Amino acid sequence: MMNQDSAVLQGAFLLSDKLCLPTSLSSIQKADWSRVGHPVLEAVREICGQDELCGRPNPTAVNWKKKIICVVWLKLLAREAEEDVEVAWRENPFFSLQNSLPEVNRVVLLELVKSTAAADIFANFLVCLPQPQMCSELEKLIEHVTSNPMKEDDVQLFLEVWWELWKGRDHKKEGGEDDIEMMFANQCARLSSKCASLSPQAAKRLKLDTLDLSASLPNADVLHILLCALKDMKDHVSSADLCFQALSISLNALYTSFLIDQEVVVPTKEKMHILSKVISTREKKSQELSPELIREALRDFRASHIPSQFQPSRMKLSEALKIITELAQFWQSRELLTLQGASNPSYTAFQLEQSLQRVLTALDQTPEAVGENDDQETVKKTLRGLLKLLALPAIESSSEVSVKVITTIITHRLEDYENFAVLFASEASWAACDERWLDCLEKNQAAFRRHDTLISLSSTLMSKLHSGSSNVSQCRKLMKITADIFSALSLDDKNRALAAMLGLSSRGFFGCAVPSAVTDGFEQELNMAFNCIIQGGAGASAAASQGNLNTAASLVARVAFQNPEAALRSCCHSAIFNKGAFSLMAKILQQLPGLRGQRGREDGAQRNEEEMQDGEESTAEGKDAVSSSSPLSRCLQDMIRTKSLSANEKEQFLKFLGLLMMPVAAAQGEEKEQSFLQPQEVVNAFVLPNLSAMGHCSVDAELSLQLLHTALSADVQGPASSPHWVLDCSPFPLLYILAQLHNQTLRCYEQPPESAVHLFSMESKELLVTVLTTLGQVVGAEVAADPSSWSRALFWLYNKIEELDWTIRFHLKPVWGQHFKNEVPSSLLAVCDLPEQEWSGLDLPPYSQGTGLLAWMECCSISDSLQSTMLSHLSLDQHKPEHVSMFSKGLLVALTQTLPWCSVSQWSRLLRALKELITSSRLHVPFSLEYVDYLPLLDLRRFSCELRLSVLLLRVLQLLCGSSCSDWLSVDGWAHVGRLYSHAVRDMISSVRAKLPLPSSGASAVSVSTSPKRPASRGSNPSLTPVKASKMSEDHLEDGGDSILKSHMEEERTAPCQEVLFVLSQLFCHVQHIQVMMPGGQCEPLFLSSLEILSHYEAVMAAFPDSCSPLESDNTRHFFSTITDNLENQEMKAVLQQKIAQLVSSAA
């Protein structure tokens, strides 16, 4: 159904057809169009708008013009193909309008294109055709253009179609308009198939090898057709502008067809200058700057710098150059190449100058392309002469024009706008003087959302801030816009931008002095961001946690982009001083790897060689850890240097760094998992400088050790082929420092001089040994993998260790490997049969004759493997009682000397060795009856080890607390001894408990409810006396209860409950005796051990009611209370006596 516009168009064509009488539109000549075409042009003007033909059309007008050209062309093709109407009305979407028009010929089509300035539309339709058909249509266009009467506007039409073909389709106008071109292409293909005269086989060959066939056709070379046509038209060109245009287009076609094979990339700044000159020349011809004007200039520029889609098949470069030079010489001879108004060159002259420069440059770079030298020089001489003839004055384009051009490109998202945005953002001169620059930036933030564009903009802002004469309000506005642009980036781009900002300045926009108003605004934003994060992180539901984390990371990233150092400082402050915030802060930073800073790696072996030239001092002085560390490390260093941390804050600091050293999923572009903070950086920044500065009051050596332990525990090892990260941390000097510190712990109870700092306690010795051993294992593995590279470092360390205690070498055994013998005091070799090929003796003054067992015990405490060696090679003849007796006495003395200087793990090893010696009968410990009137009739053989060990420790503590040894230890030393003894007591309680598992609550309940409450006699052994229940009761038990009761009854028949109570009573008395002996008598660990013994005593009495009669329990309470009365601390005494009062037999 036709609409009003279609009816207007139909009426206009019918009127024009009548004006042709006695002929018709299907047979008119070119000269007739001026007489009959007026109604059609009026109709087009009415449909497309009054000013469409002379102004800029709107999209609807363009669409209608395209539709009219399409319908007229299809009408013409349908007549030539003799299309069947019955088929057309079904398959042709334009059938209604097309069928309503009278028959036309090509004169109507081409004159309509020329009169309506539709060369671009015509060219777009041409591109939709197969190349052979397109060449045929071009030849018909040329035939029409060259027919009489031929005028300049015909040549203009030809040149416009040519250039539009080279420019290709306007991708910026894609959308609904493409539907018409697609339908046109489909209809042309349908009509071509109807009139094809090829056989089915030939048609198939055409389809399979279209390129070969089209290349073989005589008229398939588009450039050849166009250049030859221009040559034929040369006499009809009579204006300088048309000559310039023709030469420029032909040179561009030659350049893009022969001289380039890929797009020529022009720097954006140069491109901007060219565009500005183009616009300046066009503005002088009253062409107002507009998006359409710039879009066309960009299309012209692009078409001049990309390879043509119409590659020549028969024409050669030399032939094309010959035609162009002949044209230039011909028009020059007619004085058509002379500039009119040289001070104000035209756009076509400027374009020709650009084209000539491009071709000449390309010919100079590829001289072999032209052919013979004489021809080459002739061509170049002609082109240079033409360029000299033009001699255009320098076209000045103001910065104002440049800003207008780029602003328009960015605002309307024209071609290559993103690269223009980078240039726009980086021009500080524009930002300083033009309000339009800031306005464009604010309104087109999306165009700047690339990290490289953002960094250019940031550099401009920093220059503006640091200029000293900047407008504060503009700076604040620009900073907000920049931060908003950053906030809209993806997480990956945010991290790239953060990394780039760190490269510019660790303080971001505030690297130099900035106005206080700007600083205050940022401080408010920073505080608000972290307040929101801390408040929002508390009590967040699991479902919202990830969303909260993403929001928090975005907030931190925004302020970090403005000032990375300030944001990191706030992160560190929150992580350390806000309880529980360390985890959230670590997760936030792990999402922002852009804040890590640059990373590098040195050759570990080479660097250690250099460091050992000056000894371990290079670790402290040569590292320059602060300058080489990341921004986060520097912030943390400043914080712990300027503030004294509490124990809780230190713990948060350790956990914070531990989380940051954990590997997280690799960011885009990274091959493997990365940690935010590398362990080697932590060691170099926090551990090495602190441990090297021993003796300074500000050094927290224990914190440094904890950091080193955390770093060594981080699972960040790279591929197996790469060296361990420890090699970046001066491993051999570090091992020596740790060995020195371990040496100090051996004298930890000595009072240091007044000016010295007490660095270590026994509590930290455990950690030190762990770190030393772990580091030794890592370094040892690297040494074993490449011994030759590390031999000098190995001997350096071994020689240094000679100054220290002999036991330290055993902690570094993984480093030595098989390179050195085990060196021990010579006195040890007297009590231990060790192979000479692996062991050698040292004459050490503290280890004179008779100290072999002391050295032996020290070896037993160092490691499990060394303990096993010591036990298996102990030189002791058990068949000689006097040898065993002497060994036992010597061991008692050695243990007394060793105990106070043991760490918990060393003490645990010694306890295992003592148990092994007792159970193997090599260590004789007589059991005395100090705490019983007589030994009850009990089987204590299975508890022999626990009882003897307890007596042995009692004898050791009696010696230690005696007058000869009481001044060995400080208050801290006695507290440590108490903790070690309590550890041994708990170990013995656990051993006793394992030999009498308490029955389950269900069995206990059944037992209590069903067994008779018969008190045992004083002389009886309830553990061997069966508990008898009445046969009647057993017969009436249900199956489940029966099995439980029988199981429990079986336990009570064999359970050594009385023996356990006896052993526990002995342990309690020993503990109480020692607590009374120890200086001060207020050792809390011993008090807690006493409570634990009493609790288990009570539990055994409850689980086994017949284990103790009421009289026995009463005697026990009285006896325990008497022992406890000796305690000096009244509070401890009261608590223990209250607990003792609860020891009431369940049989009562």
Automatic annotation (TrEMBL):
Gene Ontology BP annotations: rRNA processing; spliceosomal snRNP assembly
Feature: compositional bias, Basic and acidic residues: 599-610
Recorded GO CC terms: SMN complex
UniProt region (Disordered), positions on chain: 595-630, 999-1039
InterPro entries for this protein: GEMIN4
Compositional bias segments (type: Low complexity): 1000-1011
Protein name: Gem nuclear organelle associated protein 4
Gene coding for it: gemin4
